[in-house]
């Protein structure tokens, strides 16, 4: 598989404390790549570095043919095709599911532009396609308040995917979901991964086991082990530091 993103010798420091310490890894095209590890391992900081929210003290992040994106501002990184979903919800509750998707498709974060400008036929078709794969086409004229917790998460994932990113970064997308919703989210990520690599920070080990193509285990800022879930979960270092057995 082709490499979409290459992280090389990356260190992120906060007042001299290395939250990410000399990490090198790569995300492949079409991969569902999980970052796991105990609390404080550096997973979220690594996502923050990829999307430009924090700047590294050392190292580089190469994305497609864009060169080292650590030199770019956060919005420039988004424009080049790296989308990030945060744990904090970012849907607008006063407008419908469809209007939220329109907003995202336009990449203009104002409600006015959505209400008063027209999307192209291509954008409309893209929205309908994404509404179908996130399972919300029938609910497109509902307001987000009418959606379940899982449906709200899928709407947010859809709002990222409608922008056609090449990598999607997700921070604990199944937090607060039951098993059925979690599995549905995994199936959605599999569908998305046909077009877009997916990087997920996750605590739910059943979810990781069922849907990961690659797993990177971080511990105290360093990369401990990397591979497929089968290799990773039988590694004695992982059992010791992460699974605690
Ligand atoms: P994880 O996502 O694996 O739980 P984080 O990336 O959130 O870990 O944090 C890694 C370490 O860096 C933790 O010890 C955390 O306290 C520290 N850290 C994260 N962000 C900051 C910050 N903005 N300022 C200072 N320390 C931070």
TrEMBL record:
GO cellular component, as recorded: plasma membrane
InterPro entries reported for this sequence: AAA+_ATPase, ABC_AA/LPS_Transport, ABC_transporter-like_ATP-bd, ABC_transptr_urea_ATP-bd_UrtD, BCA_ABC_TP_C, P-loop_NTPase
Top-level taxon of the source organism: Bacteria
A GO MF label: ATP hydrolysis activity
Stretches assigned to the ABC transporter domain: 5-245
The entry's keywords: ATP-binding, Nucleotide-binding, Transport
A Pfam family the protein falls into: BCA_ABC_TP_C
Cited CDD domains: ABC_Mj1267_LivG_branched
Gene3D superfamilies: P-loop containing nucleotide triphosphate hydrolases
NCBIfam families: urea_trans_UrtD
Identification of the protein by name: Urea transport system ATP-binding protein
Lineage: Bacteria, Bacillati, Bacillota, Clostridia, Eubacteriales
């Amino acid at each position: 598989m082709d490499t979409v993103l290459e992280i090389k010798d990356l260190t992120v420091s906060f007042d001299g404390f290395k939250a990410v310490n000399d990490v090198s890894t790569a995300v492949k095209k079409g991969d569902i790549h999980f970052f796991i590890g105990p609390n404080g391992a550096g997973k979220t900081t690594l996502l923050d570095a990829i999307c430009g929210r924090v700047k590294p003290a050392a190292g580089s992040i190469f994305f497609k043919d864009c060169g080292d994106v650590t030199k770019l501002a956060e919005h420039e990184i988004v424009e080049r095709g790296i989308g990030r979903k945060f744990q904090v919800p970012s849907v607008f509750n006063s407008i419908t599911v469809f209007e939220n998707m329109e907003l995202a498709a336009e990449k203009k974060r104002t409600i006015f532009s959505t209400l008063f400008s027209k999307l192209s036929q291509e954008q409309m078709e893209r929205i309908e396609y994404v509404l179908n794969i996130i399972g919300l086409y029938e609910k497109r004229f509902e307001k987000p308040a009418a959606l379940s917790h899982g449906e709200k998460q899928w709407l947010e994932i859809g709002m990222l995917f409608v922008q056609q990113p090449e990598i999607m970064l997700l921070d604990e997308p199944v937090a607060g979901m039951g098993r059925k919703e979690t599995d549905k989210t995994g199936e959605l990520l599999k569908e998305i991964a046909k077009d877009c690599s997916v990087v997920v920070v996750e605590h739910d080990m059943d979810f990781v086991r069922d849907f990961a193509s690659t797993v990177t285990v971080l511990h105290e800022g360093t990369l401990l082990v990397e591979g497929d879930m089968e290799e990773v979960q039988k590694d004695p270092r992982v059992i010791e530091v992460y699974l605690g057995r």
